[in-house]
Design brief:
With about 190 residues, the protein is mainly α. The chain is about 70% helix and about 0% strand. The protein has helices at about 5-15, 30-40, 45-50, 55-60, 65-80, 85-95, 100-110, 120-125, 130-150, 155-180, 185-190.
């Protein structure tokens, strides 16, 4: 049954026809129970998927369980909001999900300024590079729209993008110099 849903499991069972057990060290008891249930039913409750999302995506990628990855991606997109958009973008980036990244970026165009998102302050300290990438990818989509609507020249657009890159470089520099998490006080000391 498992071999029918995973290329890796199929290869394991093809190589060793006596194989009865497969060790999956990435999972704890509850996660493994849900994973095995998924193989037999083809579905899982949304709350279980949400709780173990990153583990399921990791295992789906490692063992090539494409259907599990697709189910997880559908849940990520269906639960997308201002409160989790940056984390969802991060998960999509880690697990090479271009469909989820695209969904996040499309919805972000309608959700307003990124600095108002629920996780923004957390990511300014945790991963400012991810925020920069998020801004850059959004700006690639916004730039042409603004140019059509407001006649912004490419030079003006690139200046705005350069300013964002400078800001995030300053945040990273401040963090590197002080060794502390970056906050507004640190930034204000660099640029009064």
């Amino acid at each position: 049954m498992q071999a029918a849903r995973s290329e890796e499991f199929d290869a394991i069972f093809q190589a060793d026809t006596n194989a009865k057990e497969i060790e999956i060290p990435e999972m704890g008891g509850e996660e493994l129970k849900a994973f095995v249930s998924f193989f037999y039913t083809g579905s899982l409750p949304i709350n279980v998927i949400a709780e173990y999302m990153t583990t399921f995506l990791h295992v789906a990628e490692k063992y090539k369980v494409h259907y599990l990855a697709a189910v997880c991606e559908d849940v990520l997109v269906s639960k997308l909001s201002r409160d989790n958009a940056i984390t969802t973008f991060d998960i999509a980036k880690k697990y090479c999900s271009s469909d989820v990244k695209e969904a996040v970026l499309k919805k972000a165009l309608k959700m307003g300024e990124i600095s108002t998102y629920g996780e923004y302050k957390l990511y300014t300290q945790k991963d400012p590079g991810l925020l920069l990438e998020f801004y850059e990818q959004l700006s690639e989509r916004i730039g042409p729209l603004l140019a059509k609507r407001r006649r912004i020249t490419p030079g003006m657009f690139h200046l705005a993008l350069w300013t964002l890159q400078l800001f995030f470089s300053g945040v990273a520099l401040c963090q590197a110099i002080t060794g502390f998490a970056v906050n507004s006080d640190c930034w204000n000391q660099i640029i009064p």
